[in-house]
Task: structure prediction
Amino acid sequence: MSADIREFGKLADGRVVRAITLRAGELSARILTLGATLQDLRLAGTPWPLVLGSELPGAYTSSLNWCGAVVGPVANRIGGARARIDGRDHRFTPNEGPNLLHSGDDGISGLIWEVAEAAGDAVTLQCDLAHGFGGFPGHRIIRATYRIAPPATLEITLSAHSDHETLMNLAHHPYWNLDGTGTTSGHSLSVAAGRVLPTRESLPLGPVPVEGTPYDLRQARALPDLPPLDHNYCLDAADTPRPVARLTGERGVTLVLETDAPGLQVYDGRALDSTPYPGLMGQPYKAHAGLALEPQLWPDAPNHPDFPSIALRPGQEWRQKTRYTLSRA
Result:
């Protein structure tokens, strides 16, 4: 099957965004060259989108920043917007108080990626980052491959190389709403993790057991019953993707997330507000319109020597694979 690639629109600065539509089995997905963004995802027999998105390109450089995109080169937070890389101190431009979030204004979610390969059921997008771009060393080549595996699995494989030692922590950042409603209040969530990173002023502390805390999601719980969430769940080590989270809507759609990443950031979407841009259901998104599930390495790792390292050295390949499997009751 040939690739379905069309112009999606133009940004305010004149850059052209293209959309690649993938189809196989019971799924169809639309991927944007802007940020390698998952703009829409549909399951046959379900007449509503399963992720948050917009039909307007400008939304993705404004109030829907990071929505559905591949974020990086360093996802999540770097405390104090500073890190030591290959023995040298590096400082970045903070964008969340004193901290750096999702690599700030020079993150890869704001770039137009090249279409490296495309077919009817898969696409590979690539972006090249010059040495020093965003304050990080290394000429870095980053790739994202989306592929639909019938009957209803969307796979995303992220990879990166660098010619200098650098930091790398790519993360896919979709917001899920399986009910097509204004909020995720009808959803339940489970996460197969025995530890979580508590936070202070948004930055992670050391891992603690979830047992006996409000953050224990080893058994499915209704989202309205959970505490405010913007936390990294610490996953058991794995060389291949394994089931780590299950999200179920009240209208019969279920998502099973598998990944080989060592962490899963769960964000409840409490600050969502896409005004003035309408979402895929025709109205702007408001608080709790979607739940973000972001496979990644642990946040602020450069400032925590006991966290899994996010250093990427020349000759190494950074690689992460995630599968989203949808089903209907």
Q: What stands out?
A: The first strand starts at residue 4 and ends at 10. The mean pLDDT is 97. The chain has one domain: 4-328. The chain is about 0% helix and 40% strand.
